[in-house]
Design a protein that fits this description.
Largest sheet: 8 strands, mixed
Helix content: 25-40%
Radius of gyration: 16 Å
Shape: globular
Strand content: 25-35%
Low-confidence stretches: none
Distance between the termini: 40 Å
Mean pLDDT: 92
Length: about 190
């Protein structure tokens, strides 16, 4: 039996492959976005960076796909096939179905792969919001075990059952409270 899924809300497809990996130190691990990354994709990278630093006191640099130092052996690769050539190549080589049609609107995939000498966690979205949702799901996988940040090797695929998720909200100044929009994104609310 597979281990219980730690991602909230649980994704439509979750396969624990029975192994765990350690998130490397700041020198060996980095968050990577495409050279054509959209503003939401850059937000996803920065938010993931901030959350890892807050919870685990681990500072990961963010690079675009062309500027990753050779010493970096573990990559958290965020993006879409249209904006990140590295991600597009991996999806093509490994037959990972990632597009606006599959997993679709706000959908994402997470896969743990080897790419040459590098360990890659591919966090790909069907659109820019999908990248944000994917990085939140990946963060849910991280656990502190015996002083090291660990995560299961998984294959995840998710998409919303309801494309537009939100509600009318008449007190507009509440949207401007620091962290309010971050909380909306964390809960997959995509309109108010």
């Amino acid at each position: 039996a597979e281990a219980p899924c730690p991602i909230v809300p649980p994704p439509k497809e979750y396969h624990d492959l029975g192994r765990t990996l350690t998130l490397e130190t700041s020198d060996a691990a980095a968050i990577v976005v495409g050279v054509k990354a959209t503003e939401p994709e850059r937000y996803a990278a920065e938010y993931l960076q901030t959350q890892i630093e807050r919870r685990f006191q681990l500072q990961l640099a963010i690079y675009d796909e062309t500027g990753v130092p050779q010493a970096v052996t573990q990559i958290l690769l965020l993006g879409q096939v249209d904006t990140n050539a590295w991600l597009k190549r991996l999806c093509s080589d490994r037959k990972i179905d990632l597009s606006a049609d599959s997993p679709g609107h706000d959908g994402f995939v997470i896969r743990c792969l080897e790419d040459g000498q590098r360990q890659v966690v591919l966090i790909g979205g069907g659109n820019p919001r999908g990248v944000i949702y994917g990085q939140h799901a990946f963060f849910d996988l991280l656990r502190l075990e015996r002083g090291r940040v660990r995560f299961p090797v998984v294959s995840v695929r998710d998409w919303p059952s309801i494309p537009w998720r939100g509600r009318p909200h008449s007190v507009l100044k509440q949207h401007l409270v620091p962290g309010a929009l971050d909380a909306y994104l964390r809960e997959h609310i995509n309109f108010t």
